[in-house]
Amino acid sequence: MLTSLIVSQILSWVVILILGTALLALARQVGVLHMRVAPAGALTTAGGPSIGDKSGPIAAQTLDGKAVFVGGEAHGTALRLLMFVSAQCPLCKGLIPVAKSFAHDERLALTFVGDDDPAAQRELIAKQGLERYAFINGPEVGQAFGVSKLPFAVLLDEHGAILSKGLVNSREHLESLVVAHEMGVRSVQDYISGLKAQAA
């Protein structure tokens, strides 16, 4: 009886040690995979002006009827982020607070752009606390930048040059717009493709 108890205790400790070793090996492999997985960036699209092109001033109206110009020169504003959203887009609703936080952290001038029912957009503004942001509602800006899917973001410099753009659905995607600009590449995908070409 005592012998079987001792044997079972030894076997249980051996199993625990094997499981602990397997867990450490698994954690190491997850770390290796994390290092190998390329960072996801905003998905660039083929439509609209290219990165590096200078956007001229686009006449538009805010939701409250104020005439504004998007693009072109904006002296005193280093970087501008145009965030294309809609009240009908669930992804947009989740990304708006992220975009607000990101723009604040990166010191970007944030403008929201949409083309939807004004009443629905006003409800979106109230629910998301966007009263202090410019909110343009109309097709002009989206057409000028070739926006066909949402949520979409465009990063402009003070002269209206398009620094980066793409479909976004996370803070990582928004950050990739700034990173691509800082690295002097069109997009994170282009950078990764270049690395793969060099490695081949």
Your description of this structure?
- The protein is 47% helix and 18% strand.
- With 200 residues, it is an alpha/beta fold.
- The protein has two domains: 1-37; 58-199, 3-Layer(aba) Sandwich (Glutaredoxin), CATH 3.40.30.10.
- Strands 5-4-3-6-7 form a five-stranded mixed sheet.
- Helix 2 (90-106) links the parallel strand 3 (79-84) and strand 4 (109-114).
- The longest helix has 35 residues, at 2-36.
- The mean pLDDT is 86.
Name the features.
single chain, 200 residues, alpha/beta, Glutaredoxin, five-stranded mixed β-sheet, two-stranded antiparallel sheet, 6 helices, 47% helix, 18% strand
Give a short overview.
The protein has helices spanning 2-36, 90-106, 118-128, 139-144, 171-183, 188-199; strands spanning 58-61, 67-70, 79-84, 109-114, 134-137, 152-157, 162-167. With 200 residues, the protein is of the alpha/beta class.
Named CATH architecture of the largest domain: 3-Layer(aba) Sandwich
Low-confidence stretches: none
Biggest sheet features: 5 strands, mixed
What is the helix tally?
6
Q: How many distinct beta strands? A: 7
Number of domains: 2
Question: In the CATH scheme, what's the topology name of the largest domain?
Answer: Glutaredoxin
Shape label: elongated
Sequence of strands across the biggest β-sheet:
5-4-3-6-7
Which structural class do the helices and strands define?
Answer: alpha/beta
Mean pLDDT: 86
Amount of helix: 40-55%
Tell me the name of the CATH homologous superfamily of the largest domain. Glutaredoxin
What is the CATH class of the largest domain? Alpha Beta
Strand composition percent? 15-25%
**What is the succession of H and E elements?**
HEEEHEHEHEEHH
The whole-angstrom Rg is 24 Å
C-alpha termini separation: 65 Å
